[in-house]
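From the methods appendix. Each design record in this collection lists the tokenized structure first, followed by the designed amino acid sequence. Records were kept in a plain field format so they could be parsed without special tools. The example shown here is representative of the layout used throughout.

RECORD:
FOLD TOKENS (99 positions):
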């Protein structure tokens, strides 16, 4: 039986939460570096480091991670703007001082 599509589901996650789970698993369980994880999943080093930082903070705070199945509305975690999918960091306007 050809299990290639099944293997691809785990090795090439496409949905954001699935990719985040796989990347964090690779970091904490497999012991891979952020650089290696980025290369495996098509992420930047900084994205992986941000996900690791946020996950550690959630664990320290006793919050349920966003990909856990038994979440309730009160357990919702709001990600910082820089971690939200589809948003780009835009330069903020600065005031110009006149002489």
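DESIGN:
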């Amino acid at each position: 039986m050809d299990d290639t599509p099944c293997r691809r589901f785990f090795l090439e996650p496409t949905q954001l939460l699935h990719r985040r789970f796989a990347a964090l698993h690779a970091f904490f369980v497999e012991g891979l570096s952020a650089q290696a994880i980025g290369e495996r999943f098509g992420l930047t080093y900084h994205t992986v480091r941000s996900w690791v930082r946020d996950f550690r903070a959630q664990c320290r705070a006793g919050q349920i991670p966003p990909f856990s199945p038994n979440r309730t509305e009160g357990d919702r975690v709001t990600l910082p703007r820089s971690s939200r999918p589809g948003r780009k960091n835009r330069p903020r306007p600065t005031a110009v001082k006149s002489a």
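APPENDIX NOTE: Residues 27 and 83 are 18 Å apart (CA to CA).
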